[in-house]
Amino acid sequence: MSRSEPRTTPRIERRFTGIPVCDGIAIGPVFSAAEPAALFKPRAIAPEEVPAERDRLEAAILQSRKQLAKLRARLGVLPEEAQAEIAPLIDAYIHMLGPTRLTRGVRRRIPEQLVSAETAMAEECEAIARAFLAVSQDDMSEEYRASQDRRAEEVREIGRRVIRNLTHQPFRSFAHLPPGAVLVSEFLRPADAALLEPARLAGVATDEGGADGHTAIMLRALGVPAVLGAVGLSGGMRSGDVAIVDGGVGTVVLNPSSAALDEAHRAVTQFARARQRLGRLRRLPAQTTDGVVVELQANLELPIELALIAQAGAAGVGLLRSEFLFMNRETLPDEAAQSETFRTVIEAMGGDPVTIRVLDWGGEKDIDSLVAAGLVPELADSNPALSLRGIRLLLRQPELFEAQIAAILRAATAGPVRVLLPMVTCVAEVRAAREIYERVIRRLRRAREPLPEPLPPLGIMIETPGAALSADALALEADFFAIGTNDLTMYTLAVDRGESSVAHLYDPLHPAVLRLVQFATEAALRMRKPVSVCGEMAGNPRFTPLLLGLGLRSLSMNAAAIPRVKQALRGVSFAACARFARRVMEQPDPQLIAELVAGFHEK
Ligand code: PEP
Ligand code: MG
To answer: What is the pLDDT of residues 287-303, one digit of tens each?
Structure first.
């Protein structure tokens, strides 16, 4: 949220600290992602639609209040003068969503004028804003006029927030993003991040977000220098500010001094040189000093990443998150469209395997096309991470699942493919999924569709403690395991992966998480089932020796991380990694584990 009233105070350097999410330095003018109006079509409704529109309005008001309360609660970490500037603004917004003229007026407009909730909200806000501005024209005092202008803008801003929540539209349209800008926003949904064009953008910084949330994953996939969870940033910036975003250390500097700018320019040059050096590793084998070969694959979220994957020298795609196919569209992609996209990826991999994960809806991944199709509720459950996520939704909506399976099988004639099930917690889910899988195979056979030979293996994500601790039983049912350390960490430690206020507690090196990774890996190896890690842990070169030492030989990560992980493993022997992992696993203290991992070097 940014104040748009004119201000005369000088631009002073201000520093914000957040979570480093994607390496790289960005320097550029800020672009506030909260400026333009929310888009919607004014709509008349029939009298019988009134109750539903009222419900939508109440839900959006509640959601808006929750968002603002969350922002308000987190201001405590800011310096006092920043709090003094931002807190009253947020309080004003929260107040407006209480029992005020605004909310009463919107509620009345729906039945009286028979208009949709967003139409009523926009019209009421505009009427109130105009009333403020009309008063200001007759008043001589500059100060009073400025305060009326500000109040008018505040009403419009709160209206935009509610309308954005009503329309579920991406938080922002990025069409007007000036090339080379730093995008600053209070919050960025994964679907918003999917709309960014990395070539046109210098960097991203937000108030909200966690290191391994899906927005962070998208930004890493795009290779955009990014800092999330920089509290107070969007409230503290002004249009025309310049920002430096250091995505490696997690800092954002607004209006940097010339010394800070010089230093940032030097850092940009160093970063580019280091990247060039890493690029030379592309053709070298991913092999430890004692000859153990490790499979390094890429995660793929957006088709735009295919070029990056080719440059990084990935040995295939270890996790294709098929959610991207369903995002930022109003209708569901049909079987043919899905198959076409999968085929493009498979062909681009030129014979290297592609692991396609069927739709993992839920948690923070809100997908409008599924809501529009009536397959998922419009309002998230109170605890979406524990609700109808991943395989649970697919088993509840078998047509959705069958269409995906058929699309994958059709595309799989183009090259080696594996099918991956998300959010498994028990054996029954794998059995039920396999039944559907086999049913689709039989249907395609009857229709004389060409099928891949051999048929794609059916594997599962190990990303819940329930799955990890049942890994021995699951290894009898699943053809392979992909360990998702992002959700595994979240569910094991009860820490939301996308929530900046608890980001300091989100720790994949916690012994509880490591023990689950070890248990699942050993269960797979005992049954001679392939096992990989495809959570963000796999892309952190500091964790590479530990993961190898735990027995993993296959890691899948954002493409840009592959050279660094390759460099890390080419410098160690497998024997030393195994010794190191034994030492780490004896440690009960996460802090000491972090120190051991940071200090690892082969004697
Ligand atoms: C994970 O949970 O670790 C994972 C790879 O899946 P996602 O990040 O898509 O939830
Ligand atoms: Mg997951």
So the answer is: 999 999 999 999 998 87
